[in-house]
Write a structure and sequence with these properties.
mainly alpha
Length: 81
């Protein structure tokens, strides 16, 4: 059966442990801030991509409509319909 650890083995730092990195906390904060910023940027880019899609689609439909009406007008003029 497992024995509870003795108080001497639970000490947070011993002399033979490697030293703690003093910049680890700030580096971790920067990492998480960068992740949040990247996630927000992806969200913004995705939203604008949808807006661009609908604008281009509307433009293509308008141009197709103008071309169709002009073509029909020319056909009526040429053939006298």
């Amino acid at each position: 059966m497992a024995q509870p650890a003795s108080p001497t083995t639970q000490s947070p730092l011993r002399d033979d442990d490697p030293p703690l990195d003093p910049d680890a906390i700030s580096r971790n904060y920067r990492l998480h801030r960068a992740r949040r910023a990247a996630k927000a940027k992806r969200h913004r880019e995705k939203r604008w991509a949808g807006v661009r899609f609908w604008l281009v689609l509307a433009l293509v439909v308008i141009v197709a409509g103008v071309l169709a009406t002009r073509t029909l007008g020319e056909i009526e003029r040429v053939f006298g319909l």
